[in-house]
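Input chain follows. Return structure tokens only.
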Amino acid sequence: MNRHARLHGGLRLEGHKTRPFERPLLVAAPPDTAVLALDQGSGEESEPVVTPGQAVRVGTLVAAGRTAAAELHSPVSGTVRDVALRPTVRGTGRCIVIDSDGREERDAQRVPLDWRAMDAVALLGHIAAAGIAGLGGGSFPTAAKLALARTAGVGSLLLNGAECEPWICCDDALMRERAADVVLGAQVMLAACGAERCIIAVEDDKAQAIAAIESALTAAADSRVTVMVLPAIFPLGAEGPLVTAVTGQEVPRDGLPPDVGVVCQNVGTAAAVAGLVRDGLPLVSRIVTVTGGGVRQPANVEARIGTPLAELIEACGGYSGAQSRLVAGGSLTGRALACDAVPVTKGLNCALVAAADELPARAPETPCIRCGDCAVVCPARLLPQQLHVAAQADDASALARFGLGACIECGCCDHVCPSAIPLTSRFRAARERQHLRQAERQRALDARARYEAHQRRLAEHADAEQRAFDAARRRARDSGKAAD
């Protein structure tokens, strides 16, 4: 067992993770109607490849992947009802709606894989085709991340079990009960990305998970895979701070972990890879923490992708009557939801049904008193108060100078601000404005390029016509001379 490097900033917070472990991991029944959001959490939609009325089985491809969106598969057997707008974690988005027939028939193409006999390219192809994506919340396609790591020649695969945000404990439950899957997934991903070693990072408040992983490692007898114990400090589970804590190196601003020889994956993603090679199934389910004072019996629930949250809450005894807010994710970085019809996605790790005293309303905002508390806790070593001034002025150069691109939107600065300034939301809005401006500039550049290409084609066409005319005139002149 390894020990961690020194951390910077962060917060030690009350975990609120005891109650879900009063019950064993639940397996929810398949939904009668699966609602598959085309944006599974990465911010980009996959492209539907099915039409209303089409029959599907468990594991049938229903949407093709794109750059930042993984393939999407049916979690049930049945019939596609529609592709329509439905409530999602991000508000409203296009969804594939599938009515289950209850038969649970499996797509015949989904068979176990002899992964040890495959080369890396074939293995990456199977992981991509299975729609496996980051289950820590980012939902970026796993195969693309592993392929980039292989190209960069990374030496270390880092599995993130540092589940640091309050309320969320789905990864802890997974490691406690399915540690062998995490280790098998680590071995498969090592073969796919070409790394020499794997470090499974787990926080020190997860004693049972650590013991389970160590037992699984003993059984696997693979010296390439080890455990590193980290302090339970938020936001250690974020990729940048985790890499620094484990390796002592900082990911360059606007860079990626492969720049320092590391590729990061979530332990849940590793378990999904294990499920692929062992059972042949693509990613059609994940574990979700359903918790908070607003639910009667909090638990960690394995649910099919596309299951409405209302069904998971019902599986946990239903609402307690004390529910005040419904949040997708934890209390610091989660998204408030308007209704419980929102479906489970690959990126949804927690449904927090909070009572009023668990997530109290934000106090009225007052002017910044320049206390510096936000800078002390910032894990990215930024100056949030300076960023806030730049964000309020929409000063692009100042935002770049003070490192907006390095902000991981963890919410630590919000949590400690005595003036109740919503710093993170303003940083997020400033970033979105920058992205919009960048997209507008790119559209203008693309339009200019198209215009210039059109002008070149017109000029080339005119030149060709002129050359043809001149050639015809020369031929006519030469034939006239020959006649004389």
